[in-house]
Design a protein that fits this description.
This protein is α+β, with helices and mostly antiparallel strands. It has five helices and 13 strands. 18% of the residues lie in helices and 34% in strands. The radius of gyration is 17 Å and the shape is globular.
């Protein structure tokens, strides 16, 4: 993932709302979101190259999503796939605090990442560059390829639009609209992450349109106070047009599993 927007316990009827874009090289093979045959409680897309995922949710209400940290000088070409970290966060039935301890121990083996997840009770974030994480209070959060809530133009703009879009729930149109925002930042506002100015410009919009790299999918997840989960994924072609869509609805098993 390269942009994750999350409203945690802000809306009275929807305690968790997520809107996220996955940006990737277009030739990387990917499976659309579905219930995994080898892990039947897990709903997620799948990276067919490394077999992990970038975002998912379980029937018990565990949700996790990951972004890479952009700094070419810190690359670890032989590190294990970061997609494993999302699967582990989803499948291990441990509290956020315990999983934070695990990530502190294992994160040095991986290329830089940020992981945000909930066990259904608390919301946690772990940032591998500082090597630490924390639980988060109610609020609206934005995560791209730096630390949580780093004020990059696309993060600030998307957070503001997410806060406004909450008033239109349960409709998803405004959430999808903010994910489809392809307005680049002005050059004087571009981050400096170690890539060329041309790449900074391309990557500065929420929705990235590039011939070999860009936004390949968008996901919206709404968890209702009644435990109903609504999951939608859109897949985008190279020209930015819709290539496919999947939608799932399911009910969490009981009040103890609700956010």
């Amino acid at each position: 993932m390269c942009l994750i927007l999350l409203a945690w316990r802000v809306h009275p009827e929807y305690p968790l709302v997520l809107a996220a874009n996955r940006d990737e090289f277009r030739d990387r093979p990917t499976e659309a979101a579905q219930w995994w045959l080898d892990r039947p409680t897990l709903l997620a897309g799948r990276d067919l190259q490394a077999r992990g995922t970038w975002l998912g949710i379980t029937r018990a209400g565990r949700l996790a999503a990951l972004t890479n940290y952009r700094d070419p000088q810190r690359a670890k070409p032989n590190a294990p796939s970061r997609g494993r970290l999302v699967v582990d966060a989803l499948m291990q039935e441990v509290a956020v605090a315990e999983h934070l301890d695990q990530l502190r121990r294992i994160s040095p083996a991986y290329a830089d990442f940020n992981l945000i997840w909930t066990d259904g009770h608390e919301l946690g974030v772990f940032e591998s560059v500082p090597g630490d994480g924390r639980t988060l209070p109610p609020g609206v959060y934005g995560l791209s390829n730096h630390l949580l809530d780093t004020p990059w133009p696309k993060v600030e703009r998307a957070k503001s639009r997410l806060a406004e879009a909450l008033s239109s729930l349960p409709q998803d149109e405004r959430l999808l609209e903010l994910l489809r925002d392809d307005q680049p930042a002005a050059d004087e506002q571009l981050p400096r992450t170690g890539v060329s100015v041309e790449w900074e410009r391309l990557l500065s919009s929420a929705f990235i349109r590039g011939p070999t790299y860009g936004t390949v999918s968008s996901t919206v997840i709404r968890l209702g106070a009644d435990g109903a989960v609504h999951f939608r994924e859109w897949r985008w072609q190279q020209d930015g047009t819709l290539g496919g869509e999947v939608s799932y609805r399911f009910q969490l098993p009981g009040p103890d599993a609700r956010a």
